[in-house]
Structure formats: structure tokens, C-alpha cells
Amino acid sequence: MRHRVLAVALAAVAALAAAVSMAFADGSRPQRAATAITCKAYRLPVEHRGTEQHVFAELCHRGMVRARTPVQVLLHGGGYDHRYWDWPYRPEKYSYVEYATKRGFATLNLDRLGYGASDHPDGASLDFAAGGRVVHQVVEKLRDGALGPRFETVVLNGHSMGGIVAERAAAYGGVDAVIVSGIPLNADGEPEEGDPDDGGEPGDEDSDDGDEDLYPFTPAVQDPRFAGLPWAKGYFTTLPGSRTQVFHYPGTYESAIARGEESAKDTLSSGELCSLRPCADAAADDQDRRSRVDVPVLHVLGRHDMLFCRTTKDCATDPGAGEVKHLIPNAGHSINLSKGAPQFYRLTLSWLAGHGIA
After folding, report:
1. What is the mean pLDDT of residues 257-281?
2. For a 10 Å CB count at each end of the chain, is N or C smaller?
3. What is the rounded CA–CA span in Å between residue 148 and residue 273?
4. Dist CA 122 CA 126 (whole Å)
5. Which CATH class is domain 26-194+207-354?
6. How far is the C-alpha of 303 from the C-alpha of 329, rounded, in Å?
């Protein structure tokens, strides 16, 4: 009898695994039986410089999603895609989608324009101002009911470059709160967008600033993974083997995360990169940079963010952390993929609850 029960159980597991691996024609993904999460993928049309482009978005929720269900729009950073927010390894610990949906939120997890499964227009045209306009169009679709209910509460949650885009989008209105991780505040209360060392140009590995090991970007056409793609010329990616050194800090990540980092790496647009580090013909973004956000904004850093806190290697004492008061222990730049990820997740929902969003 015991063997029969085991056989039935194994057959059920095999059937579930087969179902999860199927690609659904309507873009949906089957419910994860253990967690009762429902996800559906979309390709949302957006306007970019007079042309129609499409953005990949995955809406996830548990139970019935209604207008009063708060939705978080998740915006990954440069060199990542939407998997940053829904990491496949140990999702109970490293998937923000899993965490937030278990606590009553819906999530709309984007591949930002120029990333992942979204369209890839000319990379030079994709600066942060353009990214903000695109995300604002997505927010309008959520408000207008294009994905089902007319969502009454919309939060933008962006990491690193995605955090800069989140604040750009929020300046257009239509959102209730913004969460930014991996970007400090300067004395004026704006995102500290400048690279801590301003020397050199993207792809210039011979810059004399002494920190080229912390500047991991190289033209995508020089990476075999992207070189043959028709849009690669306007994009950059990370140098092989550089991601854990730059995006993490020793002792704050699992070895499996390091392996997944390299296999899941994505590109980033020259327009965004040139907004952070000087390069020829960079798009001007000054007017947009001065815009203010009129909703609550939470800024969070990993305590050992090596992109900003290089002097002491501790953002609790490093001037590079600016005015950020919320630091996540056991975390480098990519907080979601660090051992401190659960603390970051708890902080975001506690902060939102403090502003009446829960």
C-alpha cells in the first residue's frame, strides 16, 4: 500500500512538472499548486519616439484580483531582466513576486524596453527620460483596466537603473508610492546618478581612475551571446565573470546565486549607461532630472554596495551612501539576490503599510 501511494505521488509530481514546463498560447502560466499563484504574460504596446514598441509584462496575484488590490510595478536594473524580481533559485527566499503576492499584492513584473523579451529599439534613444515615459504608459494601462481591473493603487518598485526610471515615471503622476533600491540620495534629495568615478567612457578598460575592475560593462557586440543580434550595436553587457565582484560582496551571497548571475545576464542600453558615465553624443536629460516626485519615496541600499560605498566598503560609514537611512545587512548592490533579501522584502511592505498601502 505504501509503495502504491508513493507511485501515485510520483506520478502527480511528474504531471505537475510537465504542466509547469508547457508554454501557454494565451501567455498565461499555470498556477503554482503549492502557493496558488496565478501569472499571465502580456506584450504591452507603448509609444517610443513616434514608433510602436512592445514591453513584456507578467501580472501575478493570488485569488481574485480586484480594483482595490494594490499592484507593484517591478523594474529591474541594468544587465538584468524581469527575473531579478522572480529569481528561479529558492523562490521562497529570493523571489519578491512570491513574497509580495503572498501578502495581498499583485505584481506587474516588466522587462523594461530594451531588455529581455521586450522590443529593442536603438539603444542610444533609451535614456532614463524615455524609460520613464514608457513606464508611465504602463501605469496608465493599469489605471484604465487594460489588464483586467482598473487598479486603484499603483506602486513603482525599481532597482538601480530601474529605480531611476521609477522616479522619472512617477513625476508624470498616476502612482501612489515609489521604492528605489540600489541608488543613494544626494544632498538635494535626488537620485545620485553620477558614477562615483567620472573618468573614461563605456567600454574603455584603460581609464586611469584605478577602478576599472568596478566598471564591468563592455559593448554587447563583443559578447558571443549577443554579438549576432541585430540590435546589439546600441547596447552593453557585463564582462564575463565580473558580476559577483561588482553587484555583490563576499559572504553576502550563495554560490548558486553566482552561477545563476552569469547564465541570466542581460544587456543595458547605451542611452542609460551614457546618462551615468560620460560618453560621446549622450542624450541630454537635465530637465527631466530636475523633476520632483509628489508621493512617498523609499530609498534602500545594501550595506556593502560596491558601486557607491567604495571608500569604507560599508554604507553605514561611507559618504557614497548619501542620505539613505535604510541599509540592508548581508547585501551588496543586488539586494534581491543577497542573503539580506528577506529583510528588504519585509521593509518594503512595512513601509508601504505605514503609508496606508497594504
Report:
1. 86
2. N
3. 35
4. 7
5. alpha beta
6. 5
